[in-house]
Amino acid sequence: MTARVGVVTFPGSLDDRDAERAVRLAGARPVSLWHDEPDLRGVDAVVLPGGFSYGDYLRCGAIARFAPVMNELVPAARSGALPVLGICNGFQVLCESHLLPGALTRNSSLRFINRAQPVRIESTATAWTNRYTAGEEIRIVLKSGEGNFVADDATLDELERSGRVVARYAGDAPNGARRGIAGVSNEHGNVVGLMPHPEHAVEELTGPSTDGLDFFTSLLAHLESSPAAPAAIG
Amino acid sequence: MARVVVDVMLKPEILDPQGQAIAGACERLGFSGVRGIRQGKRFEVEVEGEADEAKLDEVRRMAETLLANPVIEDYSLHVG
């Protein structure tokens, strides 16, 4: 059966359509989820897309965290059952929800960064990166003003020790992110937050590469290798 | 009706590039003797009735849950 992958649209989401397109290109069926409906519609996984949810008022992701759709998502993600990928603003929502450690703050340069960014995959032990090779360098789009990942040293040490740093910027972190961290996962590997955008690198015509597609095909491989995860598990 | 003011500041160890940019502008404008600037947020919360302990507790919970992100920010509140 074709996997069904939910993509949440918050007011101010920008990249939900691209995320749905990436899901489709990977061979799954995208399911649109609306921020105001407390229902995941039985999807097998969820993508929280990039953009400026609720205008990024207060802090990026701080208000989206309390959207009705998150009521079902947060416990299912925390339990390890529901794979969730948060891209850019979605990563910020996952940090604000405490599903992932740390926080994303203003780029150290104060400039909005928009470029094709070399990124090194550090961990393939997640639902979203199992089709990559550890150490593999990919080129995907980075476009964010608040992508500077921060956490205290003890948290960073623990993330590195437990293999939960999923991706790093190759070379210097353009946004000042601590230890060059571009993406992290939770302890189960089902929840991944990523500052650059794999969904913008899935087609030759519009992306800097097609290197991002394997985030989505990794999910399908993960779902095939593990029993169906009912999204409603709490 | 009473007003409770919540001040939210980045923790001292968190880089504040906005504050640094403002400090740079101060220097260019000739405001001398500025050692550094950190930028924060101020929330004025209007509550019904008196700002008693129960109300303050509620605002405190609000600050911890929503107004501040305890990973990177500290908050303080006072009746204003």
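The radius of gyration of chain B is 16 Å.
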